[in-house]
Design goal:
single chain; about 150 residues; alpha+beta; Yope Regulator, Chain: A; two-stranded antiparallel ribbon; 8 strands
């Protein structure tokens, strides 16, 4: 694992391209409604104790990663925009949009309150988390030199 000397984020690849940010997560919620803050708190409480989870503020969003991002939360004016990633295509009414993103599926979900943080949503986030952990192991094995 490589750690950026400026923002101290961890990455799988040495010198991985990224945007450094030294913001605090709280700065992203300035002038946001209490409902959005409570929704974010419910999300972060649900995943923060999972093994190896790193939570960092990026320029405009909060990134949850295990060496590879599995959840990106962007605070908007009246809702939180969530992006999750997986190799498999799923269908669900939770999804606002589904896009192809670097060979994976990017699932976009919008929530407005802590009541939107359902067991179904947490289950889907856990699938993204597990997928990111598996990808991290596969990438490491690909890069490892054999002698």
């Amino acid at each position: 694992m490589w750690r950026c000397p400026i923002c101290e984020r961890k990455f799988n690849a040495p010198d991985q391209r990224h945007s450094c940010s030294t913001k605090d997560v709280g700065e992203l919620f300035i002038n946001r409604s209490d409902e959005l803050v409570l929704a974010y708190d419910a999300l972060s409480r649900a995943v923060e104790d999972w093994p190896n989870v790193e939570i960092r503020a990026a320029i405009h969003s909060v990134v949850f990663s295990v060496g590879r991002a599995f959840l990106v939360v962007k605070p908007m004016k009246s809702q939180l925009d969530l992006k999750l990633y997986h190799n498999e295509e799923f269908e669900n009414n939770l999804f606002h949009k589904v896009n192809r993103f670097y060979g994976r599926f990017q699932y976009q979900i919008r929530i407005k309150s802590e009541h939107d943080v359902s067991d179904e949503l947490i289950d889907f986030i856990s699938k993204s988390y597990e997928h990111a952990q598996q990808e991290r192991v596969v990438e490491y094995r690909r890069r490892r030199k054999r002698y």
